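User: Hi! I'm a student and our assignment asks us to look at how structure tokens line up with a sequence. Could you show me two examples?

Assistant: Happy to help. In each example below, the sequence comes first and the structure tokens follow. Example one:
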Amino acid sequence: MCYHKYIMKRERVNKILDILEETYPDAECALNHENVYQLIIAVALSAQTTDVSVNKVTPDLFKAYPTPEALAKADTETVAGYIRKIGMYKTKSRNIVNLAAKLVEDFGGQVPDDYDKLVSLPGVGRKTANVVLSVGFGQQRIAVDTHVFRVSNRIGLVDEKDVLKTELALMETIPEERWSRTHHSLIFHGRNCCAARNPKCETCSIKDYCEEYKGK
């Protein structure tokens, strides 16, 4: 009986993921970047702000500091001027300068493809490290941001109360080969349909599988 329930759950999960992939075929990282250095800086800047806002400030930032070596030598107040339009810009300017300095000092100016090394960098937490490993290095990862946390718990993929437990539960629930794709699909669904307030339930492509919608 338990095995049967597991199979049914896995079938439901895969059906949800199939529909989300069909709904958002172009779901991918929305942060503009040309290399892994630009990616890690952009993701670090995206904390508590939107990707759209980050994309507005990074062109001039990367033009001024095209390499980790250049950013490592930068004055934090000057860097802050480039990113002033995003939240927590003073703290983030210090973080990315220190991040670049550590890349140069400890990793030869190269972004490492190892989780533990990534989270040793200033301003790089679990979510940022997972995004870099997934988008920058092609590893299967699930990075839990506010959208992934909200949507995955709301629809019933998992039932957890914090970000870390949600990530670990999603890793158990979702086939590993689908982790990265699911991360982007859930983000797009959160942005375009399953908003924190006034979600568009009636037009939702997965409403028939959503625990919260079925409970209404």
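Example two works the same way, sequence first and then tokens:
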Amino acid sequence: MSRPARLSAARARRIALAAQGFKSPRPTRRVDRRHLRRVMSELNLLQLDSVPVVIRTQYMPPFSRLGPYRPGLLDEIAYRDDEWFEAWSHEASLVPVSDEPLLRWQKERARRGETWGQLAALARQDPGYIDEVLEQVREGPLAPKDLREPRRRSGEWWGDRSDGSIALDWLFRIGEVGIRRRAGFAKEFDVLDRIVPEEILALPTPTEEQAHRELLMRAASSFGVATVSDLVDYYRLPKVPAKARVAELVEDGLLAEADVEGWDRPALLHPSAVAPRSIDACTLLSPFDPVVWCRERGVRLFGFEYKIEIYTPAAKRIYGYYVLPLLLGDQIVGRADLKTDRQAGVLLVKGAFSEPGHDRGDVVEGFRHALDELTVFVGCGSWEVVGSAGDLIGAL
């Protein structure tokens, strides 16, 4: 058995960022569909989130890698042309429609009552209503409020969700329906065979073990270098069986073991991982970007402690409500609390903070460049400092 490769911390960072799409030069002309498809091929999924403080999070990873583009182009690929579809992957995500067979194991687990127990309860209690809702979706795409009998309800767990909304959610979890989006990110449900092509739905269903192995390899490709827990988290696979699949992939020689300087656990390398001599990045990242969504990984790679403070009481927040990290070169060098004022057409800078150990002047210039680009991307005319938090706010 060969010895694990030994990687410096800097080399591991460059491998990770290259795998995430930061090795490729940015387009010199208008960003088009080919560029967005390339980003998807590198990331394999885009996490969704409904909070539009700056811009909805699924638009941000392509921006961070490509620069400003028209966000509506992503919607056209996903929701009009159905090249990608919504699935429960790393939380709610967009994934290529070609990956649908790899996610069927989730739906079978739901059907068996192993997951989404609250949703399954309605299906058990009133299967006739579930069938009725599905029949209405077959008549044409609809939102929960469009159901002929949405059945309003209330309760501590569900809030004000209707039975119809719960039924549609259940049908989504078991793969009978899919989701498109109307204006304002509103959900519209349609039967899955009008979203995923027939030739893909007709493909054989992999076993759960086969699907997990393939998804873990995709995670390894997107991360380049990663721990076992990083790989399992990418598609939020069940931990115990997924860890067994990782061990098989190592045994089969599909993943290589590595020791990374400063990491407190073994690492795994994808065979296609590359380490460019440098990473030429200067951009702000979404809180839900794969570079930082695994907080432990952010500490291991960048020494970057990160927490979303949306749900933290204002008086207890350290950095702010919606904070975006600044990637400069192969390091995360700062973070900024931002908000898009769409009515005024201004990107508001409420706070700006540097990370220890980086040249202050470089970080300030990096922020100015990244804020200029983000301002264009979110459709504003300018950015403006409106807060006083952080050691960089005066310089900005």
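Here is something you could point out in your write-up. The two ends are 54 Å apart (CA to CA).
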